[in-house]
Amino acid sequence: xxxxxxxxxxxxxxxxxxxxxxxxxxxxxxxxxxxxxxxxxxxxxxxxxxxxxxxxxxxxxxxxxxxxxxxxxxxxxxxxxxxxxxxxxxxxxxxxxxxxxxxxxxxxxxxxxxxxxxxxxxxxxxxxxxxxxxxxxxxxxxxxxxxxxxxxxxxxxxxxxxxxxxxxxxxxxxxxxxxxxxxxxxxxxxxxxxxxxxxxxxxxxxxxxxxxxxxxxxxxxxxxxxxxxxxxxxxxxxxxxxxxxxxxxxxxxxxxxxxxxxxxxxxxxxxxxxxxxxxxxxxxxxxxxxxxxxxxxxxxxxxxxxxxxxxxxxxxxxxxxxxxxxxxxxxxxxxxxxxxxxxxxxxxxxxxxxxxxxxxxxxxxxxxxxxxxxxxxxxxxxxxxxxxxxxxxxxxxxxxxxxxxxxxxxxxxxxxxxxxxxxxxxxxxxxxxxxxxxxxxxxxxxxxxxxxxxxxxxxxxxxxxxxxxxxxxxxxxxxxxxxxxxxxxxxxxxxxxxxxxxxxxxxxxxxxxxxxxxxxxxxxxxxxxxxxxxxxxxxxxxxxxxx
Length: 547
What we know:
- This protein is an alpha+beta fold.
- The protein contains 16 helices and 26 strands.
- The strands form six sheets. Strands 4, 5, 6, 9, 10 and 15 form a six-stranded antiparallel β-sheet that branches.
């Protein structure tokens, strides 16, 4: 073999290795998943009353979404609102958007240009001279400390607002005027002229290329955030996505001028299209739907924004139900349970409260093979992976506190947190911040909220415990009933005979444990009490009826 041939073979080999390494770098952990035959699919079950969407990897549920026809989703919707009340003390305005509760708008969620336009002429505004294309341009400048919401908004003002967070319990929707319109490759910020790039796009050359494409097509005064999906996308694909979003924005402005106050003027696309738009990438092998109408809508949408992917849309042709085939309902039910078992025999327990979510890690049956520290690290590492999956599946956001099993080795603590951060980065598209292990072995983190959690979406408060998770014991309920009976008997001045109807559990306790108390009441208040079981009443109820 000649030197030239050896050189050519060597260069080819190096290029092949480079391509493999780049692909691994680009797709991270998912490269391994693809290479070992894992199938990732978007499954859509469409009904007249609701649409359910599941993302599965090798039949294991990763994400679940629900859109109900009669329940209007507010997040990302635009309203022509009317300012009800401005509260300078907390720099917040309440805005009527035609919903059950008024939304609230904090001064930090008001875009800079709107603030300046509303307070021009006051002494809060300074003139800032900047040089642009060789010419001086005067811009108005307001510092964050100088912003006063009472000078920006007044009671009765009409205002274009967007919902950034759904109402939760007694809180109204959180509003903003820093608008965002999500697309497949970019998020358009029509009134914030800045360009941002997803942190998950790490290649500097690629980041610069994407910025240059956006700058070439973006109208003056607008901005954009380049999404992770844009990595590797062509100029044509990105410009098409941008045009689609600009058209939506122009429609919103037109509707605002035509509509009356307290009216919704724009809503995000159907839940199935949202999931396709936000999650479709090279990892997705198939999009399977059981509705011909839905199939046509997705096919038409992809024909406009991603024609190379439209062949992935397929109709479900199997017997029975699509979700039954992949056991989606069973997996959703498991995701509502507090306890999640780990393969090693350990477990995690997830408790959600209004303020935060608490997760506890337990070793369970896992005893390890060598030493305690190895056992704990293995369980904590396995738990970290499962926690990342559960946060995504259950759509848990806000403050999260994780009580990992205590480790004495400082290196193992660092190793655990590093692994957890990397796992979140690879598996979850929402931003999260993880702090180091505290002195008490606690890891604190935050995850961006988006919509309702799976628990809030599918469950209501228990009418018995009202969300406490526990009810009064049989003993406590029995003593409460005895006190109430005593108060009732006090009012009777003559001898009477009564039937005392009780729940079976209370009846059994009274007869076996507190029958002497019943006899004492009869003696003290000159009456006769006959205990009767009533299967139709709850533990805390009783009926005292005269014979």
